[in-house]
Amino acid sequence: MYHNLEQCILDLEQHGQLVRIREEVDPHLEMAAIHLKVYEAGGPALLFENVKGSRFRAVSNLYGTMERSRFIFRDTWELAEQVIALRNDPVKALKQPFKQLSAALGAWKALPLRKSGGGPVAAQEIQISDLPLIQHWPMDGGAFVTLPQVYSEDPDKPGPMKSNLGMYRVQLTGNEYELNREIGLHYQIHRGIGVHQSKAVKQGKPLKVSCFVGGPPAHALSAVMPLPEGLSEVMFAGLLAGRRFRYSYLDGFCISNDADFVITGEIYPGDTKPEGPFGDHLGYYSLTHPFPVMRVHKVYARPNAIWPFTVVGRPPQEDTVFGALIHELTGDAIKHEIPGVKEVHAVDAAGVHPLLFAIGSERYAPYEETRQPAEILTLANRILGTGQLSLAKYLFIAAEERQPLDTHDEAAFLTYILERLDLRRDIHFYTNTTIDTLDYSGTGLNTGSKVVFAACGSAKRELCTEVPQQLSGLREFEGVRLVMPGVVALQGPAYTDARQAQRQVQGLCEALAEREPLSSCPLVVLCDDSEFVSRSLSNFVWATFTRSNPSHDIHGVNGSYEHKHWGCDNIVLDARIKPHHAPPLVPDPDVEKRVERLFVKGASLASVKL
């Protein structure tokens, strides 16, 4: 159990899980480039002791492997699991009172503890310009905080128990922000801070916000946890840290006493400025849009404070481990929230939000053999109406019947569904609706469409395991390659505009309709680079589901409507890059060469095998 971040760092170092970087490193691109290389190599946590332009040290890759993350939380993990399970299913306490007693006591001991004076973090006041101003990707709009704990309170019910602690990126420099006086706060729809800001706006008051950085690692993980009703993030932070969340109020702002840094400020109604671009977890830049401005009140730092950061980009990255940790802690929560759902898996390789795999039950008519999806369609609606899951674009859901299913065996699960889909019955669209703020495949910011593929019953087809002959010799389309059973990638001309693309895809569908039926190949992916898409399941999932908008990009061979329901013989999914898409993340080659100096013999990272 750690009382602060430095205790964790020293513990990791003692156990061979952290390396100190002695050399001066530039926060402009270099630190991020080093982090990415070490993360990809499965390397240690990194303590940057000489950050150019700042007197503060920085640490990254703390959560870079599941093994290291489990080690960090080894003393409190089991108790945290018990408390979450108890909150999800309180009846357990009645059935097994003595077994659940430790969980109940643990939750009580995790109640936030108010202190006076602000604690160690209030030892010194600094400015934004004193911080390690880390820019991660070449086209980023400035320096960002990537592991913040953004704290706000309910204006109607102030205090920590009704507060929100979320991980929303914070832009420190660049664009129109006035250095040391303004920072940008980017939060997406369905976030708790948005509810607080809405209430503050109704009252005509600014919303007080505190941005905590550092502190015990449990505090950062708590900021991304989807917790059950009645369990606040600050309470969970204390539970997972094995030490009550200590807080104070200075000038009316909440201060996390154990944090390394705290930035306090206010968000005024209607006060926005351009925020971004920022290289994000989908593997593309999120572009510049107006988001709330936080007017900085004060910035605090504890003695010998350490700035934690991570780098996001195309998965997998360090935040992938966060997702795995969350799944370990809350894996059964969805069963209690949506009865009938056995499992929901947000596919990391697709950037999490674009693609969901789910398993449900079919219990509506147990006296007859299942003939078509029924209950799982109801469950699909519940899933797409639940919290962050509502931001998904693609949901593949299957009924678990004669054989056990596992959504984390992604290739096998997708194969199971493709074998059973009735392409004229089992495709269900939701148009003109919300999608992830960071997803630019839709029709505008936060707007796009969704589709559900629902499958049950016996297999309807045997999937092709080699490229069908019918897909060769197509005009304008070449490089046909098998991705996986039943899925083929076809390389087409570059997408220039919607009308031309519509003619191209329509011509392809008509050409395929004139050939022998392709029943063994339910999904044809039209792409820019079929070799890339077919090289790995990860490439296929990323390119296909991040570069398409279901209502606009799903086409079909012999596609037709019956009573407003669309179906086809084969799906043709246009996953080409479109002009309105955000650019993908590409490292700066000069920076890549510069950081090689740290991996040579005698340098700090010589032991890391790239």
Describe the protein.
There is one protein chain. With 610 residues, the chain is of the alpha+beta class. It has 18 helices and 31 strands. The strands form seven sheets. Strands 5, 6, 7, 8, 9, 10, 11, 14, 15 and 18 form a ten-stranded antiparallel beta sheet that branches. A five-stranded mixed beta sheet has the order 20-21-22-24-23, with helices on both faces. The model is unreliable at 93-101 (pLDDT under 50).
Helix-strand layout with pairing:
Blueprint: H1 5-14, E1 18-21, H2 30-40, E2 45-48, E3 57-60, H3 66-72, H4 77-88, H5 91-95, H6 97-109, E4 113-114, E5 124-126, E6 144-145, E7 148-152, E8 164-166, E9 170-171, E10 182-185, H7 192-203, E11 207-213, H8 217-222, H9 233-241, E12 246-250, E13 253-256, E14 261-267, E15 272-275, E16 278-279, E17 285-286, E18 289-301, E19 306-309, H10 318-330, H11 333-337, E20 341-346, E21 355-360, H12 375-383, E22 394-399, H13 410-420, E23 427-434, E24 447-455, E25 478-484, E26 487-491, H14 498-513, E27 523-527, H15 530-535, H16 537-546, H17 550-553, E28 554-557, E29 560-562, E30 565-567, E31 570-574, H18 589-594
Parallel strand pairs: 1-2, 3-19, 4-12, 21-22, 22-24, 26-27, 27-31
Antiparallel strand pairs: 2-3, 5-18, 6-9, 7-8, 7-11, 9-10, 10-18, 11-14, 12-13, 14-18, 15-18, 16-17, 20-21, 23-24, 25-26, 28-31, 29-30
